[in-house]
# Entry
Amino acid sequence: MAENGLVRVESAHSVKDTIDRLQADVKSKGMEIFARIDHAAGANKAGLALRPTELLIFGNAKAGTPLMQANQAIGIDLPLKALAWEDATGKVWLAYNDPAWFASRHNLSGQVDQITGAMTAALAAAAKKSTGV
# Structure
């Protein structure tokens, strides 16, 4: 399901396993992992409770740089990010921004369709593989 450029996929795995699988998949495709953030651990350190929630930040300069050359402000949406979380019913979700959506957000529609199309396909394949759906 997609809403306001956010693509959501239900996962058959735990939050940790979903992000582990995503990290392994994107690394195997030559992408760089920039950060992995465990929001639940951060909340715990602050004395607050949060269901499992992890963010993976990753990308490839060969794909992202041409977008930034067209409009550097798109760097607010790059590198790519994927968030996995467990909802109140125990379902696990993986979400990421649709590259075509953020290209449109920065008025790049049409200029970089080949790049955003490849990014969209790569993200969809990685989401499918990491969620088991």
About this structure: The longest helix spans residues 113-131.
